[in-house]
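Running low. Invent one:
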Amino acid sequence: IFPKGVCLRFLEIIKDKHPWGISRERIWGCPLPCWNCKNCGEHVWFFSRKEIINNASDLPDGENFELHRPWIDKIVIKCKKCNSKMEREPFVLDTWHNSGAAPYASLTDIEYEENIPAVFLTEGIDQTRGWAYTLLMENVIFNNKAASPFKSFLFQGHVLDKNGNKMSKSQGNVLDAIELMTKYPVDLIRFYFIWKSSPIEPLNFSTDELMSRPYQVLSTLYHLHLYLKQNSQYDKFEKSYSLNWAKNKDLIKSPEVWILSKLQKLISYVAESQNKCRFHEAAKALDDFIINSVSQVYIPITRPEIWAEDESQRERRFAIYATLSEILRVFDIMLHPICPFTTEYLHGAMFSQKSILLESWPEPEKMLINDSLEESFDLMKEVVSVSASARMKGKLKRRWPLNEAIICVEKSQKQKLEPLSNLLLSQLNVEKYNIIELEKNDGLEFVAQLLRLHLPIIPKVELERKKIGPKAKQDLPKLLTKFSETDPKKIVDDLLQNGNHVFELDTNKITLDKEDFIVDFAEQSEYAVARRDSLIVFVSSARNHDMMARGLIRDVARRLQALRKERGYTPTDILETAYILDLDEESIQMINERQNELAFLVRVKKIVFEDKAKSYKDDDIDGQKIRISVE
């Protein structure tokens, strides 16, 4: 599991055979157990306290003497050759000798056999020549064979400042760890360290980045637990309504099948990444799953069912709670090595009074993996994302219902979307959609294909300046003028029919071939379009009274929901009244037509347009100032 570069670096250090002076002129350290006779030059080595006691002529501190300097230096040894006084060698061992000998010196023979080689060791990249090398060399010497004391060794990169510079007090860019952990949650810092980069790479530490995506992950995880707790308690959900119960009752729908399939693959990927010391990849996978799959897809898809007050759908809501419980329980366990305090708290608050450390590491259930449905959902997410880009270009809010979407996909992709027709309709927020499969083409052939399918496009044509120069020569200015006056549709038609287009100048004709043009397309005025690789989505920009009313309802609902949260209400609290002031007459009429829908979205009993609330919040909708309140 060694990254190639680090592994080669370590091997080069071994090949280098750099001389190691193992002694140091210091007080602290392991004294060299060698006594020298100054008279005859005899050297004597002792390797245990007992040997020293048996050979000492004077023990000033008794037999329980301290083995370190200066006490060991007081011991007098008589030379057996000349009977002169011997003195201990004044040097101590290099501390790396102690570190390198640690496995052999600190364990009994039985412990050594059971635990060495160690499964995993880690240190900074600067310890490649230090600890890793000395461990290996001394273990080979002590065992008198090629025996490593470790199976794997992770060399970690250094922590640098946000600009990639070494932290230095003189530069004033040092982050004080105590201050950092006082200001920010320790689990957030832990997650950031793991999430930020590969452990072998230097880490540019930025508190701004710390509080961006990493904070979003932990905050989202907390609020997902809160969402589950508040709604499940409101519905009187109990743990006996398990995932198996939901399966047996046939209450599992495609969103649950999809998210549970994603969960099984996540379990496998996280375990595999951690086993390979690719901890950052595990953290990024956890991040992607909880944000992009659970929070941004599964929750919005199932929220309308959760909020429905229909008693006949109570068991279906329980199936959603059971699914979300399984997702969060397993996720907590997998995140625990990185964020132990957060996950211990969430697990204890939601799932069990026993410590999360007593839980078994999750194993993937292969029977729950559904590759085809995952492909369908992934394609649907991509379609919705491109649709959102088209809305942004057309200045059409995602909350606004639109009449139509036209989805252009590659061959065979249409059938992947068909099983999710109802979901796709709600996710796109349109009245209807049409899926069209396109052949893989570009340029003229691609635009011709779009025209044949009567898609809402306008051909766009540009000249290949480098190619037309030799053909136009001195007539280039006239050609450019004529080109600007020519309908692009006419040029495209001629290219398709004849393979060229002829420009009639005052005294000359210039014939340009297909290769002399760059052909593309733009959307017609009543549509907005976005494109990502081979996927194209058109959305209709025209909105009738009904669509405008529904869009207004959602705009107002979003602001009232934010106000509920600001005032400390939970999603399950059904309030008495929502107050809305300062809307124009047309907007009031639109809301009156759909009062029940707005009341459902913001969980209130009634909507009032009179100034009777205790306090209001100032807000605006597309520049129109309003005042709102909930009580």
